[in-house]
Write a structure and sequence with these properties.
The chain is α/β, with parallel strands linked by helices. It contains 22 helices and 14 strands. Among the domains are: 144 residues, Resolvase, N-terminal catalytic domain (Rossmann fold); 98 residues, Putative Large Serine Recombinase, Chain B, Domain 2 (Hect, E3 ligase catalytic domain fold, Alpha-Beta Complex), CATH 3.90.1750; 82 residues. β13 and β14 form a beta hairpin. The radius of gyration is 31 Å and the shape is globular.
Length: 547
């Protein structure tokens, strides 16, 4: 009898094993694998100036991407870009249209093909965020000249650091541009649009800023203020009657602007003023008479409240307006308040300061993580630099060929084999291409010492970051805040939490590397999973981050 039951059980088990295949139809499909392994792609190309277009940069990008797609049997669904758009931020119209198409297209898009990562974005960690969000939609960004397998952790890290180096390159260019602007300012040349009352033009590379008809009427306004003791409202009435339409705020700014007496000031020259080369509207004596009266001398400015270091830096998550800091004297308590009338968002300064200190823990690392993180970062920089040396050799070969083309063109023109029209056309093309190649050569040379010093600085700052901020002076707190979050932070009163539209990319990467070591970050899972907790609930809208 026992043998009978044993046989029955064995038969039943065997029957179950044989019939398990009948249930395969109920298994869930691997939609992710299906999407990633797809062959549909879209192409995105971009240049930031017409000079690049003259060098056929767009055509070069498109041909290289199409060749890659053909070799890898990828089907091109659509083309995007092909125009002049800056990659400084990701609010570009064509860029946004491309992202929307990629996510909503009926044909499942698996790849966004670009020529190089800097053609996709130069906004550093913002590109990391966008790429991470796209991967959640099973869409990969693939740079045909910088291939990396983003299905692996090392591939993701490689692409992320490429994004950061693209922004580093962008910052170097900006520094060169700023240095040139500073030099012009120090020589007395104005680098922006001249204020109301002036005509501005350049002839034979010489700047000329002269007083126009509106300026002559504004000159009278200065005398009405100084000699007739008219207030601003009375002056505005006279100006409007004379045909000069300005607001109350504008006239106040005009009276306070030393440009009108020949002196220039600029944010690039903090604490400095320079004698300008433009025409004076009024005398320096008249300007000082208006701006140094007794009433103004008796004004007592408020001291900075040590208890409200987040003022102006902290912004309302509802309307985006900066918070002010104020003291309720009867209670002796400090508060932050949204400056927008009717918003009614105010909160205890003590509570929001503690919340910010807690928020900084997301970017804190441990002492024992310093060397591993530094070594990992520096190791990648070194490898990148080695690769850049190979690229430099290639670019130098291209430069030599381009110089030969220019020389050949000049010989043909001298020998009258081509006319001046063709000569000018091709000379412009070749010189533009030569400039582009020279720029690429310059960009391949990384300043390793500066980068290493930058990394050390940020790593040391992340060490015990909340405590560092808490113990710092008022102005030191502001410096830390601005380094971490260059565009400030937003306070969500409904969730009682912070989110930020911009994070320092170097610190973010250091945080991620430290998180890979297994400890030190309370919300490390969120950071590694696409920065969702760092940037807050912003959906898929591009969020700008920086280095």
């Amino acid at each position: 009898m026992l043998g009978y039951y044993t046989t029955s059980i064995n038969k039943k088990t065997e029957s179950n094993m044989n019939d398990i295949d009948d249930f395969i139809q109920f298994a869930k499909n691997n939609k992710t694998a299906e999407r990633i392994s797809g062959s549909n792609c879209i192409i995105y190309t971009r240049v930031s100036s017409k000079e690049q277009e003259e060098g056929y940069s767009l055509e070069t990008q498109r041909k290289a991407i199409e060749l890659h797609a053909q070799k890898n049997n990828l089907y091109i669904i659509a083309y995007f870009g092909g125009t002049y758009e800056s990659a400084k931020n990701d609010e570009r119209k064509e860029f946004t249209r491309m992202l929307t198409f990629a996510r909503r297209s009926k044909e499942k898009i698996s790849y966004i093909l670009v020529y190089s990562v800097d053609r996709f974005s130069r906004s550093g960690a913002n590109a990391i965020f966008i790429a991470s969000e796209l991967r959640k939609e099973n869409i990969n960004i693939y740079a045909v000249t910088q291939p990396s397998d983003t299905a692996t952790s090392s591939g993701k890290l490689q692409q992320n650091i490429q994004f950061i180096f693209s922004e580093y390159d962008n910052d170097l260019r900006r520094e060169k541009c700023v240095a040139g602007m500073k030099e012009k300012l120090m020589k007395g040349y104005w680098i922006q649009k001249a204020p109301l009352g002036y005509d501005q033009y350049t002839k034979h590379r010489e700047q000329s800023i002269t007083v126009n008809a509106t300026g002559k009427i504004l000159r009278k306004a200065f005398y009405w203020k100084a000699d007739d003791n008219l207030n601003n409202l009375e002056i505005l009435e006279r100006l409007h009657a004379a045909g000069v339409k300005v607001s109350h705020q504008q006239i106040t700014e005009i009276f306070r602007n030393p440009f009108y007496c020949g002196i220039i000031r600029h944010n690039l020259m903090p604490g400095k003023v320079i004698q300008g080369k433009h025409e004076k509207l009024i005398s320096e004596e008249l300007f000082l008479r208006i701006n140094t009266d007794k009433k103004r001398q008796n004004i007592k400015f408020k001291k900075e409240f040590e208890e409200t270091p987040l003022k102006n830096f902290l912004k309302c998550g509802t309307c985006g307006t900066a918070f002010a800091g104020y003291l309720v004297k009867p209670k002796g308590l400090y508060y932050y308040k949204c400056n927008k009338k009717g918003c009614k968002c105010n909160k205890s300064a003590k509570i929001l300061n503690l919340l910010f200190k807690d928020y900084l823990k997301d970017f804190e690392i441990f002492k024992k993580q310093i060397e591993p993180v530094k070594d990992e970062f520096v190791n990648y920089i070194t490898k990148t630099n080695d690769g850049n040396k190979e690229n430099e050799k290639l670019f130098k070969t291209q430069l030599t060929e381009m110089v030969k083309k220019i020389e050949t063109l000049e010989e043909k023109f001298i020998q009258e084999e081509i006319n001046k029209e063709l000569y000018d056309k091709f000379l412009l093309k070749y010189k533009t291409e030569k400039r582009n190649i020279e720029e690429k050569i310059a960009n391949t040379r990384l300043d390793l010492s500066n980068l290493e010093n930058l990394i050390k600085r940020y790593i040391n700052m992340c060490l015990d970051l909340p405590s560092l901020w808490e113990k710092a002076t008022f102005h030191a707190k502001m410096e830390i805040q601005n380094i971490m979050f260059p565009e400030g932070i937003l306070y969500d009163r409904e969730k009682n939490d912070y989110r930020t539209p911009k994070i320092n990319a170097a610190i973010l990467l250091i945080t991620r590397l430290a998180s890979n070591l297994g400890e030190g970050i309370k919300r490390k899972a969120a950071l590694l999973g696409g920065l969702s907790n760092v940037v807050g609930a912003t959906g898929f809208e591009p969020v700008t981050l920086c280095l």
